[in-house]
Amino acid sequence: GTHEFGALGKVIGEKMGGLQGKKLPFIRGIDQASVEELKSLCASLATYGGAAMFHMEGITPEAGLVALSLEAIPVSRQELERSIESLNDPDAEIDFISLGCPHLSIREIQRLAELLRGRQVRREFWITTSRAVKAIADRAGYSQVIEASGAKFAVDTCCVVAPIRGRFNTLLTDSAKACYYAYSKNKFKTVYKSFDEVVQEAL
Q1: Taking every pair of C-alpha atoms in the chain, what is the biggest distance, in angstroms?
Q2: β 55-56/96-99 pair status
Q3: What is the rounded CA–CA span in Å between residue 5 and residue 52?
Q4: Cα distance between residue 191 and residue 203, in whole Å
Q5: Are 28 and 15 in contact (CB under 8 A)?
Q6: How far apart are the first and last CA of the chain?
Q7: What is the rounded distance in angstroms from the CA atom of residue 14 to the CA atom of residue 12?
Q8: Which of 21, 83, 105, 152 would suit a FRET pair with 118, their CA atoms being 20 to 30 Å apart?
Q9: Which helix (H) or strand (E) element contains residue 155?
Q10: Which DSSP string corresponds to 139-152?
Q11: Number of H helices, E strands in the chain
Q12: pLDDT at 67
């Protein structure tokens, strides 16, 4: 899921921090990845490793054209799980939930509408996306379903830059990037779960 790709970006980004000079990650061992999963990886890799680009064997279109000078750095399943655990505060009491860092795609908004249809959220729940995607969601009827649940859209912005410091204590999200900024910028505790788990917690 997207949160695992976010955790992978965190692991790779932190490993890159220990390397000399500028490095371009060439990722092997992933058989398939959705646009949403790659979006999550990109955001996390840039946040934790300062990398603006990567290649993924068999996935990104130019990966086969790269002249390789590889320094192999293995990433284990245990490292991935530790990365997820590092973003979870076991004593946190969630009072703020956010999806959309990076902005949600129309497919993610469709999934959100499916999960929220006819139900009510019980905590402050923000969804961030672009104005263009929100317009598509409006026409498809997804926005109305989501807003009827009590969740709120924030369009063309992000919780990273929103003035929310002091308003909340603990962020629940599926975004490793959001966790980084929630703690470093706003001093929030964080809880990190999959997309569907975040929605279930909101309910």
Answers
A1: 54
A2: unpaired
A3: 16
A4: 16
A5: no
A6: 20
A7: 5
A8: 105
A9: strand 152-155
A10: HHTHHHHHHHTT-E
A11: 8, 7
A12: 63
User: Do 155 and 130 touch, CB atoms closer than 8 A?
Assistant: yes
The closest alpha carbon to 175, from 156, 191, 157, 189, belongs to 191
Please give the pLDDT value at position 202.
94
Nearest to 40, CA basis, from 73, 4, 79: 4
The conformation of residue 1, written as its DSSP 8-state character, comes to -
Question: Do 30 and 106 meet the contact criterion of CB atoms below 8 Å apart?
Answer: no
Does the pLDDT at position 21 exceed 90? no
CB within 8 A of 63, min separation 6: which ones? 26, 55, 56, 57
Nearest to 41 by CA among 56, 62, 57: 56
Amino acid at residue number 5: F
Q: Which amino acid is at 122?
A: R
For the entire predicted model, the pTM comes to: 0.87
